[in-house]
Amino acid sequence: MKRIFFIHFHEAGLKEKIQPLKQAGYKVDYHFSTEITANLKDNLPDVMVISLDRLPSHGRTYAEWLWEAKKRQHIPIIFCGGKPEKIITVKEKLPKAIFCSNEKLLATLEKLK
């Protein structure tokens, strides 16, 4: 079972987004606060999923941190959702990340197995 760390900066929306992942058997940890930074240093996930639907620049900051160290660059980052103009900006900064729609997130995760 893959451990997923899901970032979406809206608590109610986050719970809705992670429900299908939990039902599919994934262990999902998450973060939604813009006031507190998630501490991932001691508990790295197998996959990081970042929603671009809310505050995409905040999510991008987490992705940049994750991949800034070589020992963490093996962890896939999936960006899901978001407006096209926001997706373009993130793709320019993180071209090795995976991008998908919210509807195709589960299928995208299944391809990583």
Could you explain how this protein is built, in words?
With about 110 residues, the protein is of the alpha/beta class. Helices cover about 40% and strands about 20% of the residues. It has four helices and five strands; from the N terminus they run βαββαβαβα. A five-stranded parallel β-sheet has the order 2-1-3-4-5, with helices on both faces. Helix 3 (about 85-95) links the parallel strand 4 and strand 5 (about 100). The longest helix is centred in the first third of the chain and has 13 residues, at about 10-25. The protein is globular. The model has no long low-confidence stretch (mean pLDDT about 90).
Features:
globular; 5 strands; 113 residues; 4 helices; five-stranded parallel sheet; single chain; alpha/beta; 38% helix
SSE string, helix = H, strand = E?
A: EHEEHEHEH
The biggest sheet, with number of strands, parallel, antiparallel or mixed sense and barrel status, is: 5 strands, parallel
Share of helix, binned: 25-40%
**Number of helical segments with 4 or more residues:** 4
Distance between the termini: 9 Å
Q: Overall pLDDT, averaged?
A: 90
**Major sheet: arrangement of strands:** 2-1-3-4-5
* Secondary structure tally: strands: 5
Give Rg in angstroms: 13 Å
Shape: globular
The gist of it:
The protein is α/β, with parallel strands linked by helices.
